[in-house]
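anyone else get weird line breaks when pasting these?? whatever heres mine. first is seq + tokens for prot A
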Amino acid sequence: MSTLVSSPGRFRRSRLRRQGRLRDLVAETRLDPSMLVLPVFVDANVSAPSEIASLPGHARLPVRELPRIAEKASSAGIGGLLLFGLPGEKDERGENAADPLGPVPMALRALRDVAGPDLALIADVCLCEYTTHGHCGAVTPEGTIDNDATLPLLAAAARIYAEAGADLVAPSDMMDGRVAAIRHELDRADLTETAILAYSAKFASSFYGPFRDAADCAPQFGDRAAYQMDARNGREALAEIAADLEEGADMFMVKPAGPYLDVIAAARARFDAPLAAYQVSGEYAALHAASARGWIDLRRAALESLTGIARAGADMIVTYFALDAAAWMRER
């Protein structure tokens, strides 16, 4: 009876790493442009693109520029656009978020006929861009967030966006009960087919700085730690996700992505609903800043970071790299 004798070369896993075509063939995680979503800033105050210094390659756009962006996104094969609005006027309660002639509804109507069947239109639902104080909800005379007074404002904005043509509305405010309020309002308006992508685990993060510059929504007092999640709490994030799904969310999001890969992985293991992750402005800006100093290869670092987010379990990635990453994927 012969005995099989192993040799040092028998189990060389590096054999499948030696060529790019072999590495691609056995890759466990695969990026595709269709899983990427591009954030877009629609500004009612500009008549031409206005560059955002802290977000290289991005600009605040007038509505008339949106069809061009949609055509680029469709040609690149990316999955969707996430729209943020900068209104002409702000107020204490952010009521202009629900203005049918506001930047997001106008953008949705402009995009609906040119977006094509494969490009999802997602409307962010929050009040921070629309309030004079920069917080995500109504504020009490004492200067605290009035959670319950905020819910009808969010629901009204979500309905207006759905009526204008949003495929998904995406509440990012982190008020308790807002998913249920929005679902009720959409159903009451016979908008039952509009889906909800809830920013369920949105952390009070230091990585939002460039976005707040781009959207002109930095808080004028205090911070958002009273309603956004504490970075130290992973189990609480899972509880927030469970609550939003119970209230009727069709998808959920973890934000930011890179510093919270453990939360993404834990959520993927626990929930079967589609999972989105937001590679936020600070993550994008940091890679660009390091690249500008010659410290990293931007293309490789960006794709590596996106691969890590997908490997952790994200089905969809919101990223400012969407157009560039789609082009890099085609070139590989």
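and prot B, same format (seq, then tokens)
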Amino acid sequence: MPTLRQLLAEARPLLAATPFGAPRREAALLLGHVLGLSEAQVLAREEGAVTPEAAERFRALLARRLAGEPVAYLKGEREFWGRPFHVDPRVLIPRPETEHLIEVALEAALAGPLPPAPLILDVGTGSGILAVTLALEIPGARLVATDLSPGALAVARGNARRHGVLGRVHLAGLDLTAGLDLSRFDLVVSNPPYVDRSEAAAMSPEVCDYEPHLALFPLGAGDSVLARLFAQCSQLRPGVSLAVEIGRGQLDAVRRHAAAAGLEVTGVREDYSGIPRTVLLRRR
């Protein structure tokens, strides 16, 4: 039977040689997933033996990873805001920079301040990470989470159930905010599709070949969904805030669309690369 060390030594150079530059540490992540161990436990038990069946499952996962399938889909899980969330090809994989949306939303909630049982809207919920996290971080909050994708709503429902907030998160199959009375909401958050299709050729195959295009690319220009969302949010009550994630180079367009919809930009937060990524707006 092979040892953990031998399987890691087999996998690491293959990962490093991928055209998308997969980190070598993913070998331990995948092996740990097969064996039910953490990455640290795998590294601490390198001399241990692995059954032929487990080694076969590991090599099958490794082959899928070498073809470009993201680790989060292979494991069926990704951490966000310190909590595990189920993910699969029906939803985008949560990015670290999206945690800035939670930071900004919580700051807006404190500055508001929100009522004791605020009604919060998450537009384009995907896996439900924003809605579930805000339900957990603001215990009295009730949330409406919308998405066009039935598959995404199913994943979000599972994550809300997993974290015990399904009773406070209402999931709705809607195009942005269509049909909702926005005057009822106390806070809005959204990580909408914002990648222009002209950028697809430069993107990693890990993203373009595996993650859902509905959640990545608007039908029009990269800022077209943001423009529609802002126009709809003109129906918010004066003083209510909207926190959104935006793409590289879209801040000027965001300011234009916001002004046209009667929204003012009250804050901009850069991501870990120094790119303006999260914008806080308020209904005038």
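btw re prot B: The radius of gyration is 21 Å. The mean pLDDT is 97.
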